[in-house]
Design a protein that fits this description.
alpha/beta, inorganic pyrophosphatase (n-terminal core), Diaminopimelate Epimerase, Chain A, domain 1, 2 domains, 12 helices, 11 strands, binds adenosine monophosphate, binds manganese (II) ion
Protein backbone atom coordinates (compact mmCIF):
# COMPACT_ATOMS: atom_id res chain seq x y z
CA UNK A 1 0.00 0.00 0.00
CA UNK A 2 2.85 2.37 0.92
CA UNK A 3 4.34 1.45 -2.41
CA UNK A 4 1.22 2.43 -4.28
CA UNK A 5 0.77 5.75 -2.51
CA UNK A 6 4.42 6.70 -3.01
CA UNK A 7 4.26 5.78 -6.68
CA UNK A 8 1.14 7.88 -7.19
CA UNK A 9 2.66 10.88 -5.40
CA UNK A 10 5.90 10.83 -7.34
CA UNK A 11 4.46 10.18 -10.81
CA UNK A 12 3.73 13.15 -13.04
CA UNK A 13 1.80 11.08 -15.57
CA UNK A 14 -0.51 8.22 -14.69
CA UNK A 15 -2.50 5.83 -16.89
CA UNK A 16 -5.35 3.79 -15.43
CA UNK A 17 -6.76 0.82 -17.34
CA UNK A 18 -8.79 -2.35 -16.85
CA UNK A 19 -9.67 -5.46 -18.83
CA UNK A 20 -11.24 -5.78 -22.28
CA UNK A 21 -15.05 -5.72 -22.46
CA UNK A 22 -15.18 -3.87 -19.11
CA UNK A 23 -17.76 -5.05 -16.59
CA UNK A 24 -19.15 -3.29 -13.51
CA UNK A 25 -16.17 -4.04 -11.28
CA UNK A 26 -13.71 -2.95 -13.94
CA UNK A 27 -15.49 0.33 -14.74
CA UNK A 28 -16.30 0.95 -11.06
CA UNK A 29 -12.74 0.43 -9.81
CA UNK A 30 -11.12 2.41 -12.65
CA UNK A 31 -13.49 5.36 -12.22
CA UNK A 32 -13.31 5.28 -8.40
CA UNK A 33 -9.54 5.54 -8.61
CA UNK A 34 -9.66 8.17 -11.37
CA UNK A 35 -12.11 10.30 -9.36
CA UNK A 36 -10.04 9.90 -6.20
CA UNK A 37 -6.74 10.78 -7.83
CA UNK A 38 -8.10 13.73 -9.82
CA UNK A 39 -9.82 15.12 -6.73
CA UNK A 40 -7.16 14.64 -4.05
CA UNK A 41 -3.80 13.94 -5.65
CA UNK A 42 -4.22 16.16 -8.64
CA UNK A 43 -6.32 19.00 -7.31
CA UNK A 44 -4.21 21.59 -9.14
CA UNK A 45 -4.00 19.54 -12.37
CA UNK A 46 -0.23 19.35 -12.50
CA UNK A 47 -0.31 15.68 -13.41
CA UNK A 48 -1.61 13.92 -16.48
CA UNK A 49 -4.13 11.26 -15.45
CA UNK A 50 -5.69 9.26 -18.27
CA UNK A 51 -8.26 6.49 -18.03
CA UNK A 52 -8.26 3.95 -20.86
CA UNK A 53 -11.08 1.42 -21.33
CA UNK A 54 -12.97 -0.12 -24.20
CA UNK A 55 -16.43 1.45 -24.60
CA UNK A 56 -18.47 0.91 -21.43
CA UNK A 57 -22.11 -0.23 -21.22
CA UNK A 58 -24.53 2.71 -21.43
CA UNK A 59 -25.99 1.94 -17.98
CA UNK A 60 -22.65 2.79 -16.29
CA UNK A 61 -22.29 6.20 -17.91
CA UNK A 62 -24.07 8.01 -15.06
CA UNK A 63 -20.94 7.52 -12.92
CA UNK A 64 -18.95 10.70 -12.37
CA UNK A 65 -16.36 11.34 -15.09
CA UNK A 66 -17.48 8.38 -17.22
CA UNK A 67 -17.17 10.84 -20.12
CA UNK A 68 -13.42 11.11 -19.40
CA UNK A 69 -12.88 7.44 -20.27
CA UNK A 70 -11.09 7.15 -23.58
CA UNK A 71 -10.76 4.23 -25.98
CA UNK A 72 -8.20 6.10 -28.04
CA UNK A 73 -5.02 4.52 -26.79
CA UNK A 74 -2.05 6.91 -26.90
CA UNK A 75 0.64 4.33 -27.57
CA UNK A 76 3.36 6.96 -28.00
CA UNK A 77 2.98 8.25 -24.47
CA UNK A 78 5.39 6.99 -21.83
CA UNK A 79 3.64 7.24 -18.47
CA UNK A 80 5.51 7.38 -15.17
CA UNK A 81 2.94 5.03 -13.69
CA UNK A 82 0.46 2.53 -15.09
CA UNK A 83 -2.29 1.29 -12.77
CA UNK A 84 -4.04 -1.90 -13.90
CA UNK A 85 -7.35 -2.72 -12.22
CA UNK A 86 -9.45 -5.93 -12.30
CA UNK A 87 -7.19 -7.44 -14.95
CA UNK A 88 -5.64 -10.89 -14.53
CA UNK A 89 -3.04 -10.94 -17.31
CA UNK A 90 -1.42 -8.41 -19.69
CA UNK A 91 -3.21 -9.70 -22.82
CA UNK A 92 -6.51 -8.78 -21.11
CA UNK A 93 -5.45 -5.11 -21.19
CA UNK A 94 -6.30 -5.07 -24.90
CA UNK A 95 -5.37 -1.76 -26.54
CA UNK A 96 -3.75 -0.55 -23.30
CA UNK A 97 -1.07 -3.28 -23.44
CA UNK A 98 1.48 -1.21 -25.44
CA UNK A 99 1.00 1.65 -22.95
CA UNK A 100 1.57 -0.76 -20.05
CA UNK A 101 4.73 -2.07 -21.71
CA UNK A 102 6.20 1.42 -22.12
CA UNK A 103 5.33 2.72 -18.64
CA UNK A 104 8.16 3.41 -16.19
CA UNK A 105 6.37 1.83 -13.24
CA UNK A 106 3.44 -0.59 -13.19
CA UNK A 107 1.05 -1.60 -10.44
CA UNK A 108 -1.71 -4.19 -10.60
CA UNK A 109 -4.65 -4.26 -8.17
CA UNK A 110 -6.89 -7.29 -8.66
CA UNK A 111 -8.78 -10.23 -7.14
CA UNK A 112 -8.53 -12.96 -9.81
CA UNK A 113 -7.08 -16.23 -8.51
CA UNK A 114 -5.57 -16.70 -11.98
CA UNK A 115 -3.69 -13.36 -11.84
CA UNK A 116 -0.21 -13.79 -13.33
CA UNK A 117 1.43 -11.01 -11.23
CA UNK A 118 2.45 -9.30 -14.44
CA UNK A 119 3.15 -5.80 -13.07
CA UNK A 120 6.12 -4.44 -11.14
CA UNK A 121 4.01 -4.32 -7.98
CA UNK A 122 1.02 -6.62 -7.58
CA UNK A 123 -1.74 -6.42 -5.01
CA UNK A 124 -3.89 -9.47 -5.67
CA UNK A 125 -6.49 -10.54 -3.10
CA UNK A 126 -8.31 -13.64 -4.40
CA UNK A 127 -10.57 -13.74 -1.33
CA UNK A 128 -11.94 -10.27 -2.06
CA UNK A 129 -15.32 -10.13 -3.80
CA UNK A 130 -14.16 -7.53 -6.28
CA UNK A 131 -11.37 -5.18 -7.23
CA UNK A 132 -13.57 -2.41 -5.81
CA UNK A 133 -13.39 -4.13 -2.42
CA UNK A 134 -9.57 -4.28 -2.61
CA UNK A 135 -9.39 -0.66 -3.78
CA UNK A 136 -11.62 0.52 -0.92
CA UNK A 137 -9.02 -0.74 1.57
CA UNK A 138 -6.36 1.40 -0.17
CA UNK A 139 -8.28 4.68 -0.06
CA UNK A 140 -8.63 7.02 2.89
CA UNK A 141 -12.16 6.50 4.18
CA UNK A 142 -12.84 10.20 4.82
CA UNK A 143 -11.87 11.06 1.25
CA UNK A 144 -14.48 8.78 -0.28
CA UNK A 145 -17.27 11.11 -1.44
CA UNK A 146 -20.67 10.08 -2.81
CA UNK A 147 -19.43 9.88 -6.42
CA UNK A 148 -16.47 7.65 -5.52
CA UNK A 149 -18.72 5.53 -3.26
CA UNK A 150 -21.14 5.02 -6.17
CA UNK A 151 -18.33 3.64 -8.35
CA UNK A 152 -17.15 1.24 -5.63
CA UNK A 153 -20.68 0.14 -4.76
CA UNK A 154 -21.48 -0.56 -8.41
CA UNK A 155 -18.39 -2.75 -8.75
CA UNK A 156 -19.21 -4.71 -5.62
CA UNK A 157 -22.82 -5.43 -6.58
CA UNK A 158 -21.85 -6.54 -10.09
CA UNK A 159 -19.13 -8.97 -9.01
CA UNK A 160 -21.23 -10.40 -6.16
CA UNK A 161 -24.46 -10.63 -8.19
CA UNK A 162 -25.95 -8.17 -5.68
CA UNK A 163 -24.43 -9.91 -2.65
CA UNK A 164 -25.62 -13.43 -3.59
CA UNK A 165 -22.40 -15.10 -4.79
CA UNK A 166 -20.22 -16.94 -2.28
CA UNK A 167 -17.49 -14.30 -2.68
CA UNK A 168 -19.66 -12.02 -0.51
CA UNK A 169 -17.95 -11.89 2.90
CA UNK A 170 -18.58 -10.04 6.10
CA UNK A 171 -15.98 -7.52 4.93
CA UNK A 172 -17.86 -7.07 1.63
CA UNK A 173 -21.05 -6.26 3.51
CA UNK A 174 -19.26 -3.96 5.95
CA UNK A 175 -17.67 -2.00 3.12
CA UNK A 176 -21.03 -1.82 1.32
CA UNK A 177 -22.53 -0.51 4.57
CA UNK A 178 -19.93 2.24 4.79
CA UNK A 179 -20.56 3.14 1.16
CA UNK A 180 -24.29 3.42 1.88
CA UNK A 181 -23.39 5.93 4.62
CA UNK A 182 -21.74 8.03 1.92
CA UNK A 183 -25.14 8.58 0.35
CA UNK A 184 -25.23 6.01 -2.45
CA UNK A 185 -28.69 5.53 -3.93
CA UNK A 186 -28.46 1.76 -3.66
CA UNK A 187 -31.82 0.64 -5.04
CA UNK A 188 -31.50 2.88 -8.07
CA UNK A 189 -28.00 1.60 -8.89
CA UNK A 190 -29.06 -2.03 -8.36
CA UNK A 191 -32.21 -1.72 -10.47
CA UNK A 192 -30.85 0.41 -13.27
CA UNK A 193 -27.43 -1.23 -13.73
CA UNK A 194 -28.05 -4.83 -12.72
CA UNK A 195 -31.67 -5.96 -13.02
CA UNK A 196 -33.13 -3.69 -15.66
CA UNK A 197 -33.00 -5.26 -19.13
CA UNK A 198 -33.91 -3.86 -22.51
CA UNK A 199 -36.52 -5.70 -24.54
CA UNK A 200 -33.80 -7.16 -26.77
CA UNK A 201 -31.70 -8.27 -23.79
CA UNK A 202 -34.74 -10.15 -22.48
CA UNK A 203 -35.36 -11.66 -25.91
CA UNK A 204 -31.80 -13.01 -26.19
CA UNK A 205 -31.97 -14.28 -22.59
CA UNK A 206 -35.15 -16.17 -23.50
CA UNK A 207 -33.55 -17.56 -26.62
CA UNK A 208 -30.46 -18.77 -24.72
CA UNK A 209 -32.60 -20.49 -22.09
CA UNK A 210 -34.86 -22.05 -24.71
CA UNK A 211 -31.95 -23.49 -26.63
CA UNK A 212 -29.90 -24.64 -23.63
CA UNK A 213 -29.15 -28.31 -23.21
CA UNK A 214 -28.48 -30.43 -20.14
CA UNK A 215 -25.46 -32.72 -20.45
CA UNK A 216 -23.32 -35.01 -18.27
CA UNK A 217 -26.36 -36.58 -16.66
CA UNK A 218 -27.93 -33.20 -15.88
CA UNK A 219 -24.84 -31.93 -14.03
CA UNK A 220 -23.94 -29.31 -16.63
CA UNK A 221 -26.07 -26.94 -18.72
CA UNK A 222 -24.76 -25.51 -22.00
CA UNK A 223 -26.08 -22.78 -24.24
CA UNK A 224 -24.58 -21.36 -27.45
CA UNK A 225 -25.25 -18.07 -29.20
CA UNK A 226 -24.29 -17.95 -32.85
CA UNK A 227 -23.18 -14.82 -34.69
CA UNK A 228 -26.36 -15.06 -36.73
CA UNK A 229 -28.58 -14.91 -33.64
CA UNK A 230 -26.57 -12.00 -32.17
CA UNK A 231 -26.96 -10.12 -35.45
CA UNK A 232 -30.66 -10.98 -35.68
CA UNK A 233 -31.35 -9.41 -32.26
CA UNK A 234 -28.73 -6.71 -32.80
CA UNK A 235 -27.03 -7.40 -29.47
CA UNK A 236 -23.49 -6.67 -28.27
CA UNK A 237 -21.60 -8.96 -25.84
CA UNK A 238 -22.60 -7.00 -22.72
CA UNK A 239 -26.27 -7.58 -23.63
CA UNK A 240 -25.66 -11.21 -22.60
CA UNK A 241 -24.67 -10.26 -19.03
CA UNK A 242 -26.85 -12.21 -16.66
CA UNK A 243 -27.62 -15.05 -19.06
CA UNK A 244 -24.97 -17.30 -17.52
CA UNK A 245 -26.29 -16.57 -14.00
CA UNK A 246 -29.77 -17.68 -15.02
CA UNK A 247 -28.34 -20.90 -16.49
CA UNK A 248 -26.31 -21.55 -13.32
CA UNK A 249 -29.36 -21.57 -11.04
CA UNK A 250 -30.97 -24.40 -13.00
CA UNK A 251 -31.86 -27.03 -10.39
CA UNK A 252 -29.40 -29.92 -10.25
CA UNK A 253 -26.55 -28.46 -12.28
CA UNK A 254 -23.00 -28.19 -10.99
CA UNK A 255 -21.95 -25.81 -13.75
CA UNK A 256 -23.20 -23.66 -16.59
CA UNK A 257 -21.45 -22.90 -19.87
CA UNK A 258 -22.35 -20.07 -22.24
CA UNK A 259 -20.60 -20.07 -25.60
CA UNK A 260 -20.77 -16.95 -27.75
CA UNK A 261 -19.56 -17.14 -31.32
CA UNK A 262 -17.26 -14.16 -31.99
CA UNK A 263 -16.13 -15.12 -35.47
CA UNK A 264 -16.31 -18.30 -37.52
CA UNK A 265 -14.67 -21.05 -35.44
CA UNK A 266 -13.81 -18.58 -32.66
CA UNK A 267 -15.76 -18.55 -29.40
CA UNK A 268 -15.92 -16.69 -26.08
CA UNK A 269 -16.67 -19.17 -23.31
CA UNK A 270 -18.17 -18.22 -19.93
CA UNK A 271 -18.37 -20.76 -17.12
CA UNK A 272 -19.99 -20.70 -13.69
CA UNK A 273 -19.76 -23.35 -10.98
CA UNK A 274 -22.01 -24.08 -8.05
CA UNK A 275 -19.11 -25.34 -5.92
CA UNK A 276 -17.71 -28.75 -6.82
CA UNK A 277 -16.13 -27.74 -10.11
CA UNK A 278 -13.16 -25.38 -10.35
CA UNK A 279 -13.89 -23.54 -13.59
CA UNK A 280 -10.84 -21.27 -13.24
CA UNK A 281 -8.65 -24.35 -13.70
CA UNK A 282 -10.44 -25.24 -16.92
CA UNK A 283 -10.35 -21.65 -18.20
CA UNK A 284 -6.62 -21.35 -17.45
CA UNK A 285 -6.00 -24.66 -19.25
CA UNK A 286 -7.57 -23.16 -22.38
CA UNK A 287 -5.64 -19.89 -22.07
CA UNK A 288 -8.19 -17.86 -20.09
CA UNK A 289 -8.69 -17.20 -16.41
CA UNK A 290 -11.03 -16.02 -13.68
CA UNK A 291 -12.20 -17.27 -10.31
CA UNK A 292 -12.94 -20.76 -8.94
CA UNK A 293 -16.68 -20.31 -9.56
CA UNK A 294 -16.67 -17.82 -12.46
CA UNK A 295 -14.21 -17.97 -15.31
CA UNK A 296 -13.85 -17.58 -19.04
CA UNK A 297 -11.64 -18.22 -22.03
CA UNK A 298 -11.52 -17.89 -25.80
CA UNK A 299 -11.46 -21.07 -27.87
CA UNK A 300 -11.04 -21.86 -31.53
CA UNK A 301 -12.28 -24.79 -33.60
CA UNK A 302 -15.65 -26.29 -34.33
CA UNK A 303 -18.43 -25.73 -31.80
CA UNK A 304 -18.66 -29.46 -31.37
CA UNK A 305 -14.98 -29.71 -30.38
CA UNK A 306 -15.17 -26.70 -28.08
CA UNK A 307 -18.07 -28.24 -26.14
CA UNK A 308 -16.46 -31.69 -26.06
CA UNK A 309 -13.16 -30.30 -24.78
CA UNK A 310 -14.83 -28.33 -22.00
CA UNK A 311 -17.06 -31.23 -20.98
CA UNK A 312 -14.14 -33.64 -20.85
CA UNK A 313 -12.51 -31.44 -18.19
CA UNK A 314 -15.76 -31.07 -16.29
CA UNK A 315 -16.42 -34.83 -16.40
CA UNK A 316 -12.90 -35.51 -15.09
CA UNK A 317 -13.32 -33.07 -12.23
CA UNK A 318 -16.73 -34.51 -11.36
CA UNK A 319 -15.29 -38.00 -11.33
CA UNK A 320 -12.34 -36.92 -9.18
CA UNK A 321 -14.89 -35.49 -6.75
CA UNK A 322 -16.67 -38.85 -6.64
CA UNK A 323 -19.60 -37.73 -8.78
CA UNK A 324 -19.44 -40.22 -11.63
CA UNK A 325 -21.11 -39.17 -14.86
P1 LIG B 1 -17.22 -13.79 -17.86
O1 LIG B 1 -17.65 -15.20 -18.02
O2 LIG B 1 -16.74 -13.16 -19.11
O3 LIG B 1 -18.23 -12.99 -17.11
O4 LIG B 1 -15.93 -13.83 -16.94
C1 LIG B 1 -15.90 -14.46 -15.70
C2 LIG B 1 -14.57 -14.22 -15.04
O5 LIG B 1 -13.54 -14.82 -15.81
C3 LIG B 1 -14.20 -12.75 -14.95
O6 LIG B 1 -13.59 -12.54 -13.72
C4 LIG B 1 -13.25 -12.52 -16.09
O7 LIG B 1 -12.31 -11.55 -15.76
C5 LIG B 1 -12.61 -13.88 -16.28
N1 LIG B 1 -12.38 -14.12 -17.72
C6 LIG B 1 -13.32 -14.23 -18.66
N2 LIG B 1 -12.78 -14.44 -19.88
C7 LIG B 1 -11.45 -14.48 -19.70
C8 LIG B 1 -10.32 -14.66 -20.57
N3 LIG B 1 -10.47 -14.85 -21.88
N4 LIG B 1 -9.10 -14.60 -20.01
C9 LIG B 1 -8.93 -14.42 -18.69
N5 LIG B 1 -9.95 -14.24 -17.82
C10 LIG B 1 -11.19 -14.28 -18.30
MN1 LIG C 1 -14.14 -7.80 -14.29
MN1 LIG D 1 -13.72 -8.22 -10.71
Amino acid sequence: MENILNAVQSASSIAIAGHVRPDGDCVGSCLALYNYLTKYVNYDWNKVIDLYLEPVPETFTFLKNADKITSEYDTNMIYDLFLSLDCSSPDRLGGALPIFERARKTICVDHHISNTRFAGTNLVVPDASSTCEVLYTLLEEEKIDTAIAECLYLGIIHDTGVFKHSNTSRQTMEIAGRLIEKGVNTSQIIDETFYQKTYLQNQILGRCLLESIMVLDGRVIVSCVSRKIQDFYGVVPSDLDGVIDQLRITKGVEAAILIREEETQSYKVSMRSNGILNVSKIAVYFGGGGHVKAAGCNMKGSLHDVINNLLEHMANQLEAAGRSV
